[in-house]
Structures are given as C-alpha cells and as structure tokens.
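Hi V.,

You were right to ask for the full record rather than a summary. Here it is.
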Amino acid sequence: MHTYRTHTCGALRDTDAGSTARLSGWVHSKRDHGGLLFVDLRDHYGLTQIVFPHGSAALATADALRVESCVTVTGEVVAREAATRNPRLPTGDIELRAQDITVQSTADVLPMQVAGAETYSDETRLTYRYIDLRRERTHANMMLRAHVIASLRRRMTEQGFTEFQTPILTASSPEGARDFLVPARNHPGKFYALPQAPQQFKQLLMVAGFDRYFQIAPCFRDEASRADRSPGEFYQLDFEMSYVTQEDVFATIEPVIGGLFEEFARGRTVDKLPFQRIAYDTALLEYGSDKPDLRNPLRITDVTAHFAGSGFGLFAKIAAGGGIVRAIPAPGAGPRPRGFFDKLNEWARAEGAGGLGYIIFEADGAKGPIAKNLESDRLEAIRTACHLAPGDAVFFAAGAHETAAKFAGSVRTRIGQELDLIEKDAFRFCWVVDFPMYELNEETSRIDFSHNPFSMPQGGMDALTNMDPLLIKAFQYDIVCNGIELSSGAIRNHRPDIMIRAFEIAGYTQADVEARFGGMLNAFRYGAPPHGGSAPGIDRMVMLLAEEPNIREVILFPLNQQGEDLLMGAPAGVDAARLKELSLKLDLPPKVVKQ
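Predicted structure:
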C-alpha cells in the first residue's frame, strides 16, 4: 500500500465498500458524538468522513488534534446507512472506519478558520494567504482560473496561433502607466523596465513572419489598485495577427472568448456571435461610458435642443453656453413616492452634481419642478424622444459636455439598479469601435494620443495630412463585458512614414520617435505586414465568471491596495552593500511626523 494514500479524499464511492483505503489530508472539522469521533478529512479533491469508533487505538490521537493538522488515515470503507448519507458530497454514501492514523504535521492555533463562511479582514487573508487558499471559495476560484487559462490555450491553438514568450527585462515604453524599473548592475546608471505589455515585441513577431502569435502574458504597471485592476502585475491573453482587418480580428477572437464564457457559464446566458459593435461616440451618448453595460436596457438621449431658449432657465443657460442636457429614462418610476426622487437627488449631490432634476409623465400631463417651467410642446418632444409612456419618469444630467456625459452614465447605472432593471445571470458583450486618434489636453492645450499611439489612423496618411486631428478616428477597439473592459486592441500602424507623421501631430519630432521606438521603426523599414491584435485580461474574465466583485479574489497571491505583499514582506529595503553594487544611492522623502 502507498505510504500516503490509495485514494484522494474525493474518490471513494459505495462500490468501494468493504475495501481497505488510505487517505491523506487536512482535518477539516471534528464532531464528538459521545464515544464516536467524526472527522471530515479534506484534500485538493474533496472531503471524506472518517469515523474513529470507541475503543479505537487511533481515537485518542485524532481527538487531540487541532483542525488543519495534516494526517494519514488507514481504514475500511463502509457504506453509510440510508438515513445518514450526505447527498451534498460525492463521497457522501460512504465513510472510512479508521484503523490507524499517522500525524504528518500538527497545526498551531489558526489565525482564520478554513471551514465555515466566517469573513476576515483583507490583512489577515493576505498575510496568511496559504491558509485562505484552503477555503472552499478561494480554492475554487483558483481552479477556475487554471481551467480558464487551459481552455484559452486550447482554443487559441485550434485557431492556428502559436505560443511564444517575450522578454521580461526590456526597455521603458509609453503604455500610459509608470514602469517598474530594474537597475542593470553591469551598466551603472541604466535600468531595465518590466513590460507593461508585450506590445512592441508582438509586433516585431509579425515583422518576423510568425503570422499568428499568442501568449498568456504577465504585464507590470506601477499604478493604483481598484476593484477591477490589481496593482503591480496582471495577466492577459496577448495575441497578434498578420494580414488582417479589424473585422478579421473580431471574427477570430469572438469564438475564443464567447466559447470560453459558454464553457464556464454554469447556466448563465452568453451573447451569441457576432458581438454587437458600438461606435465610441454612440457609446458616450447613449450609455454615458465607453464601457457600456448592455444588461441595463436604459438609453440616454440628448435633449439639449429641447431646452435651448426654453422657459426652464437653468438648462436654457447651460445650452446657450455650449453645454449639454442629457435625459435618462426611468420606466415605471412615476408612481414611486417622493422619497425615491429625493434619495436620488441626495445621491447626485454626493457625487458632486448640483442635483438631479426630473419630470414625471402621468396620464393627465407632466409633473415636477422642471415641467412647471417648460412649455408643453417641449415636454411632448422630450417624452417622444425618450420613448416615455404614462407612469414613466425621466432624469436629467446637464453641464459641460464631458462632465455631463459621464454623469449621465452614472445616473443610468444608478436608476437601473434602483428599478432592478439590470439583467441577471447574463454575459453581454460588445466591441466599442472608432475611437478618436487624438484628444486635446486641457491642461496644456496640446494634442495628445487618446488611446494607443501605435494604432493605424482611419484614412492613413491622407487623414493625418488633411483632416483636423481631433476628427480623425483610429482602428482601435475595446471588447467590453457587463460594463467591464476586457481589453483594448488595434490594427497597428505598420508604415514608418505614417508613424512619424502621427507622432509629429502629437508633438514628437522624428528624432524623438527614432530615439524612443527605433527598434520597431527600423524593423518596419524592412517590410512589415499589416497586422493587429488585442489582449483580453485574464484576471477580469475570471473575476466575471467567478462573480467576484474584486479582482484580488481570483489572483493566487495578490498585493493589497497599497501594493504590498503582506505574506512575503515586499517591497522591502536592501542593505547598503547591495545598493553600492548596483551603483545606487537613496534620496528618500522626509518622514512626516504625526501630531
């Protein structure tokens, strides 16, 4: 018999009754039934109930053990009586009647319990992550992640992609976040950067002729934490394709992502292919976001023209000053008590808005403060534009264009939640397309890239030469699921002349471009194919599939919100000798003395 186990703790069935088995695992829980000790033994594969009968030589040993001690138990597999079977466990038809127990290691008093559903602070969970990972939900999330990655690899290979590994030590690149820098010991004063993404390398692979590349790529960005973004590092399904249009990219990756979500849907609805395409400008107008949540049926309408020159002075003044007024419908909200509207108004003030005006449409006419001061023909025009019926209400967001458009999106989300309109148990996908190539930096009044500087402008060199830069669209796209951006992607700018011109508009000289991107630019001078790709975030996909509100729940050893590894104690200081070896000297900010 094997030293540690003949079966796992999830393997035994009633067909094994009468046989001798040996199991190893952790003591999950103990129950003393007056002379009989029941122990649930747990390993990676499941739970098996162990019975230590009265008078058993192993009883005293088992009774003295703390939970989470690691043991090996040998005994006879016994079929449970019908009344004591546990249908919730795959092993619930049997139990192991213990004959011998070997303690492999004992557990100290636990900082957190593995069994049960008790909640613990993030600090405790991350400090003792190896214990947290034994808990059922956390363990299941990590297994889901592993299965998702395995599925993605299989699906990408079936689509004709080849997996390559790109460098981790590389040069700094302008990906929009701060780099993590690594001092080069043999090159004093110089630094490597950890890649924010394999962007340039995957494009170089296309120039090298590999046609279809993918990688489960680690990426490193020195940026703040939030619910859907882990500080420090994350993983993405990075891919690139040669000789493709934007639609070719969509048609290739949609079966991968759609198939993945169907595989792990567990009864939830997944959009059928092809996914919906929404222009960037339309997304901002109708959803108030470039990451629209299509589970919410509400659509925003621009009603600026209906308030221009109207009797409602506040909105008329905003319209006259170049601002906008956006209407967000609230179907069926009309009969709600006044407190419903007051609550939303208070929420709007807390969000930094002046308030949240509204109109209620009833069978005998429009009601509310705005309706009292707005002409009847304008009220009817708003009702028609927003497709409202008696019993419906409509809320308004007004102000400067960008601010009001964004706030309208927040109102749309809040009303959808308050009226319970958000579709449940569904994954709704869309591509957001036609992003602007450039944007105006309000602080510097200069033109900047709005998205990815390596994207191909729609219209190519002609557009860059003859169009207003702020009107140029790019072959850039995001894939969004349930209001969460899974990835950004683009058809790349593979022409050196177009790239130099594109950067010139953003204030870079040709010398700047040669200095910063010389490796890729030179490669393009030797025959570069048209190419494009994307990089859906693996952490975010798993987070959606696991229905977890925070991305830390699907990462094995995550950093906390301050970017610290509480388990391993990173980041940590290094001694003076090591700094000298790296030709580094610290210039730390002064410590703030708390009063």
